[in-house]
Every structure is written in structure tokens, then in C-alpha cells.
Amino acid sequence: MPWPAIFHSHNAVFDALDRSLAIIKFTVDGRIIKANDNFLKIMGYTNAEIRGKHHSIFVDAAYKNSAEYKDFWKKLAAGKFHQAEFKRLAKNGREVWLQATYSPILGLTGRPVGIIKIATDITATKLMNADYAGQVAAISRSQCVIEFNVDGTILTANENFLNAMGYRLEEIRGQHHRIFVDDDYGRSQAYRDFWASLARGEYRAAQFKRLGKNGREVWIEASYNPIFDMNGKPFKIVKYATDVSADKPNEANFKGQTQAIHKSQAVIEFALDGTILTANEKYLDLMGYSLNEIAGKHHSIFVEPGYEDSVDYKEFWRSLNFGQYHAGRYKRIGKGGREVWIEASYNPILDMNGKPFKVVKFATDISDKIKSREELKILSMIAASPHNSVIITGPDGLIQYVNPGFTKLTGFSAEQAIGQKPGHLLQGRSTDKTTIARIRAKLSQRVPFYEEILNYTQAGEPYWISMSINPLFSETGEVEYFISIQTDITKTKLEALESSARITAIEQSNVIMEWDENRQLARANSVAVKVMGYANEDQMLRSPKLNYDEVFSGEDHKRLHKSLPFNKNLTFTFDDGHFVVIASVVHSLCDVEGRVRRVVVYGVDMTARNNEIAQMMAGVLHQINHTAKNISSVSAQTNLLALNATIESARAGDAGRGFGVVAAEVKSLAHRSATLSTEIAGLVAQTQMKIEQIRNG
After folding, report:
1. Quick one: angle between helices 123-142 and 255-264, nearest 10?
2. Is the pLDDT of residue 3 over 50?
3. Residue 108, exposed/middle/buried by CB under 10 A (0-12, 13-18, 19+)?
4. Among 186, 322, 520, 582, which residue's Cβ finds the most Cβ atoms within 10 Å?
């Protein structure tokens, strides 16, 4: 992927190299032509002192006369490039170490016409590495040392370790660490977790029971130290151990180890309650305090506000009081609120009886590593993500860089995009002109901004993006680049448009009313105004008929506070006698703390339907009432006939006795008909009363 054109300016690049690196030029046979100030400063010479002399003034006599040195210049003269670390001699014989490249300069014929050497002074680094190597050698002479792959496979071990465990190196190299533990522990989850944590880069230190050759029990005081590569990834584990089998009860203080650690690590000591006892200079420098400022205070001054009251923090110190070791990466707060990241271990120190009496913390500052890792992670994720489109333009607005996410989103390759203006490339027929003008105004103001815009792919397909654009300024305050990070929001935008259309449809066909947190009617849509018979929304909002407490019952209020939607037929009766019935769904809208902020009613006008039902029922009841009257009339006539039959039966004597029996039955039937007619009339009256109630609301 091509980088912005600014990185290809030869003059700018050479000037930058000349300012930051040591550079010297030679003829092909090694004669000095010229050196820059950085080189002269490192070597202690002036140009006048070295010009025309041979490179050999920078090496010792033995190397100068060696076949290796002659071959070195022979290869350079043949056009071969050479890069390495070199030991050189400065003025007055001072030893200097350089990380350098010797590069042949090719002429028009392709043959070398000179040699240029670009170097960095690594003398201090070499001395420091030599110091580290000396310290490691010293540790190796006095301690048991063994190295493992991150999976626990043994790489090598020193004589002290081999002697402590009773093995020869060839017996253990390539074996797994579990040969030093018992079978049950070697098969346990705890053991697998132990190695998993080391593979993640977590430091472990404690006293461990291990098994030597033939199952002999060996107690060691050991630390398992992940060693990180240049990318911060563990690639091996180094274990430093001391055999404490013979003197395990007397482990209160390892003075020699402590002194060594104090030279290389930040160290602070606490009482068991977290009170600070003392701290070394490295710790004080790291946190920005003097000892007088922190001695006697609690460890909580180093944590974020509020964390000291948390259960985790209290449990942390409680476990230390019980002798539990803690190690990991911790975010701490230095003087002035400065954020500090440390790789640290909290080590309870035991007295002669094995009881904790203080806590010693060993720490290493990893703030820069964490910050760099986070920044690199974020930048890498943004640039590499196929879900984010990244465009870098120059101050002229022309594209200088696009990432793969841009190509995936737009269909344009980097080659097609570079040199174009994003607007010319991506905007189309339906791109909003106002949005374009707003973007141009913000770009001219040289300020960061956010915008949403409709663009088009190479195939002419429209898509929506949200984009943030940030200007990058030079040291002189001039804009060098604009960086635009874009995200495809087409799906979200379409869903929003669809939702908006649905809401509009609901607004146009349903009654909608809203009461605010003060129980005042705050909004009514046009459908509601029309159904309720008001001239306009303002008149409706002022109506006492729509008071919250008039519309909703106490039971309704309880439901609303529980955010439970419910159905309710709302009936509103007006002064002129007409009424309105709305079949509705009632919702409450609550804030994040559960307080009701709005009550919303969505409903349908049911007034006309209720009137139709009432009129239909009134007609039916009228027919029933008419039928009941007819039954009552027939009953009266039947009763009269029965009376006449009884009289005639009495006149006839024994001859009319059978006729009398029939007359009695007819009379009984007439009585039951009259009773039934009365009951029907009562039901009709009750039903008519309920219909009137429906009509009147």
C-alpha cells in the first residue's frame, strides 16, 4: 500500500537522517572524504583531522593488519552492502561501539564510486548489556537457574540447578517441567493454570515443593520470569531458585537478593494494614513522591478514587494478611494524578514462625509499553479493519492513502483513489448539497468534526457513512494531513427511515396523546384533536376534561410506575352531552432511574361503533318488550276463559267436573305466563338503562 507522497521526498529524508544519525563518506579504497557533526562528536575528531586518512585510524592495529579487514574493504569495493555492530576506536584510543551500515554508492555505470556509512552510537547499550550479562552470570554462579519454553519444555539449566535436583542436563533437556512435581499435581487444573498464566506473561514467585531425581523432595524459593520478545510477547520462562530444603524455617529475609532487586526494581514496603513503611529511590521516582510525603500513609493513595472502598481492594489486603502472594499488572496513580502502569508482585514476608509481618512490593514501570501497545493496537485495528474505511488526504484535499476497508466499502482500489478528491470520487446525484457545503466549511476551518453523508460505490450503489475527520498539524501549525475514519451505517439509516415512515403512518391514523412528568397533557396529534372535537391542539391541551387524574385511575398509575403497558377504553363526556370512546394502549416512558417522564396513549376512535351497538340493542329490546306485552294480554284472556270455565263447571255439577279440571290447568298456565311476562319486562328495563349509560358515556 503506498504511503503519502511526503515520505518520498529525498531531501527531507536525507536532512532527517543527517540530523539524527552519524554519517561518514569514504572512497572505495577506504579514504575519508567527509563526516557529519554527529559522527565527529562520537569519535572526538574534526573533519580537518581525518579528511584524506584511511578508515583504519578507527580500528586497532591487530585488526588493521588482518586478512578479515582487507576482505571487508574488498567486498565493499565490489559493491556489497555490510551491516553489523562494530567496535571502533575514537580519538585517544577510546573504545566506541557502533550499529552501522556500510553502503556502496553506485555511479552511472553501476559500479561503486564511494562508500557511505550510517551509524548509531550503541556504546552505552553495549556497556549496559555487558553489565546485565555480568549480573546474570553472577546470579547463575550463586543461584539455581533453568530455562523453559512457554509450554514448559526444558531448554537448559545451570550446574547449581542440576546439582540441587540430582540430574544431568541431557536427562532433562526436552522434558516437561512436570518431571519435577508429583503425578497428582502434574495432572491438576491448578498446574495447567500455572503454566497458562506464565504463557500469558504473568510472573510467579513463591516457595515450591519439587521432586528431584528418584522422587527426592526439594524445597526451593523460586521466581518464574516470563521473558518478552520485541513485540512484548513471552517466548521463554527463566526460573531463578534457591534450594531452601535445609533451612526452610529461617526464610524471613534474603538480604542479598533484596539488595540486588533494589538496584533494578522499584521497591516499597508496607505494614500488614497497608501503611507505607519505606520505599527505594526507584519507586519514589516512579510515583513522583519523596519518602517524607508517603511514609505512614496508606497504600490507597496510589489507587483511583473510590477503589479503596471497594470489596476487591479490601479483599486484596485481607489476602496479603493471610500470606497470599499477588502478582500482575496494576494501574496506579502517581503524584498529581498521573497514571502509572506497573508490573508488580506483592510479597508477604514471613517471620520465624511462618506468620506474615510485612508486605514487600517489587515493581517495574511499564507505562510506556502499555501506552504504546494500546496506541498501536488502536491504530492497527482501525487501519486493518475491513469494517472501517480510512482515508488520508493532503492539505490540498487529494487522497494520499486508503486502507483495505475503503476498497471493501467503495469498490475503488488504492490506485484508483490516490490523487483524487474524496468528494469527486464518492458523492453522487442524491448526496445532500447542504451536507457537502457543511463539510467544506469545516475543512476550511481546520477543525475536527463528525458528519453523516450519502456516497456512491464504484458500481453506482448508494451507501450511508458516518465519518470523523481530524486535521494533523506540523510543528509550525500548518495542516499536513486530514485523516477520515468512516463507518458504513446504511443498514442503520434504512432502519431509521423505515421506523420514521411507520411512526408517520401511526401518527396519521391513530389518536396519540402524551402527558408529561407534571401530569399535564403536553401533546396531542391532529387525529386526537379532530376526534375529541377541539379547534386546535392548544385548545385541547388547556381542556380540564383531559386532566391526568380524570383520565387514569390509581390502579393505572401503579401499572405505569412499573412500566407495564395496558389496554384501556377511555370515555370522555362533554358538556353538550356527546361522548367519545377511545380503545387505547397506554405506555409509560421512564428515565434510566425508572422515573416516569411521559405517559403516552395510542388509540382508535370507537365512538361510532358503540353508538351502532346501542341502537341495534334498543331495536331488539323494543321487539322483546312488544312480545312481552302480547304474552301478558294473552295471559289475561286465558285467565278470563279459565274463570268462565270454572263458573260453568260449577253450574253443571258432576257432569262438569272434568271440565273444571281443565279450567284449573288453564288458569295455572295463565298465571305462569303472567309471571314470565313480568320478568321479561324487568330485564328489558335493566338493559335499556345500560344502553342509555353507553350512549351517555
Report:
1. 160
2. no
3. exposed
4. 582
Mean pLDDT, rounded, for 448-454: 90
Is residue 9 very low, low, confident or very high in pLDDT (cuts 50, 70, 90)?
very low
Distances (CA, A) of 664 to 111, 324, 587, 648, 678: 148, 108, 67, 12, 22
For the chain, how many helices (H) and strands (E)? 26, 25
3-class secondary structure, 269: strand
CA dist., res. 672 & res. 104, Å (int): 132
> Under DSSP, is residue 502 helix (H, G, I), strand (E, B) or coil?
helix
What pLDDT score does 427 carry? 93
The whole-model pTM stands at: 0.33
Rounded to whole angstroms, the Cα distance separating 552 from 5 reads 70
The DSSP bridge partners found for residue 453 are: 465
Distances (CA, A) of 285 to 123, 244, 254, 266, 330: 26, 34, 25, 9, 17
The residues near 350 (Cβ < 8 Å, ≥ 6 apart) are: 251, 252, 323, 356, 357
622 has a pLDDT exceeding 80: no
Q: Which amino acid is at 221?
A: E
**C-alpha distances in angstroms, 114 versus 21, 110, 498, 560?**
19, 12, 71, 88
The answer to whether the CB of 96 falls within 8 A of the CB of 89 is yes
CA distance 267 to 171: 39
Please determine, for residue 458, whether its predicted confidence score (pLDDT) is greater than 90. Answer: yes
End-to-end CA distance of the chain: 76
> φ and ψ at 376, to 5 degrees?
-65, -40
Q: State the pLDDT confidence band at 503, using cuts at 50, 70 and 90.
A: low
